[in-house]
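Task card 7
Instruction: Convert sequence to C-alpha cells.
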Amino acid sequence: MIEPTWALIAGGGTAGHLLPGLSVARALVASGHPEETIHFVGAERGPEGEMIPEAGFTVDVLPGRGIQRKLTPANIGAVLDLVKALVRGIGIVRRRKPAVVVVLGGYASFACGVGAALTRTPLVLLEQNKKAGLVNRLLRFFATASAVSFEGTDLPKATVTGNPLRPEIRAMAEHPDPDAARAALGLPADRLVIGVFAGSLGSRRINDAVQGLVQRWAHRSDLAVRHVVGRNGFSDGSEGPAGLPADGIAYQQVPYENRMDLLLDASDLAVTRSGGSVFELMAAGLPAVLVPLPIATRDHQMANARSVEARGGAVVVPDAELDADRLEHEVTAMLAEPGRLQEMAAAMRAGATVDAAEQAAAVVEGVARG
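Output:
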C-alpha cells in the first residue's frame, strides 16, 4: 500500500542536484511534515539509491542515460530508457497524488514534472545555478513557482532563496572554528591555507596548475595547500610535486574530501569550480579563484562565477587560461594587497543565504496551500 504523499521531490543524477533537495526535505520535516509523507524520485544511475534512504526518505529510481550528440546505436537504448522513465514517472505522480511536486533537474524530474502538468498538481522548480538547466526551462511553462539561487535566473514566478546548504555546511557557517578544522585535517595553525577542490572526479587543468605552483613555492614556509585532486586525478599515478623540503610549503594531496565543511572552515582561499557549491563558499566567507567548467550546460558555471566576482568575493579565470603562471599571478595579487582577503571574505558572507532550505521550503508550503 502506498503511503499518503504530501510532497514528491524529483530529480538528481548528481549530488549537486540531489543535496539541495534533501536539505529542503529536511526543512519540510522540521516544519511538521512526517518523513514518510515526502517521497523522492531519482535516477537509477545516480547516487539517489543510497543517499536518500540513508537520509530517512523513500525513493523510486527511473532508468535513463545521456544521449550522445552523434549518431550511435547507444542512443536507441537511451531514447527507450527515457520513454520508460517518462511513463513510470507520470504513473508515480498519478498513484501518489501529492499535494505538490518539486523538481530538482535531471531526466527523472522531467518525467514527474510532466506528470504534475497532466494531473494539475502544483509544481515548484528548484534551480541551483544562475542559468536554468534544460529540464527546468522545459517545465517552466507549467510551474506554479520557482525557488532560485541567483537574482535574474531565467525562470518564472521566481523567489530568490539561495541554494539550500547541506546540514554540516550550515553548522560550520553558523559556528566556524578554523583552528579545530585545521587540527582535524592535520593542517598547520599558523599558515595561510589554500583549499583546492573540483568535484569528485577532479580537474586535470586545476591539478596541473596547482601542482606547478606548489613546486615553485616549495620553500615558502608561510603557506599550506590541501589539494583534493579527485578520484581521476589520484588514479592517474600522480603523487604530487616531488622533493618538497620539510621546512617549506605544507602540501597535502587527497583523492576525495569526506568532510568538506572542515576544508571550507580551515581554508583562507579556495581554488575551485563554480557550480552550485559557490553558495558553500559564500556561507564559509571563503574568497576564491573560480575556474568555471567550460562544458557546463549553457555555460552556467561562468554565469555563477561572474555573479560572485561582481560581489567582490572571487576572481574568475577561464579554464583555457589557467596554468601555474596565471594562478601565481592571481594568488600573489590577493596576498600582496593588505586587507584584500578580508574584504573578499566579507563580500562572500554578505551574499550567503544560510537559511536557503527554509526559504525554499516556505515556497513549497505556499504553493501546496494554494
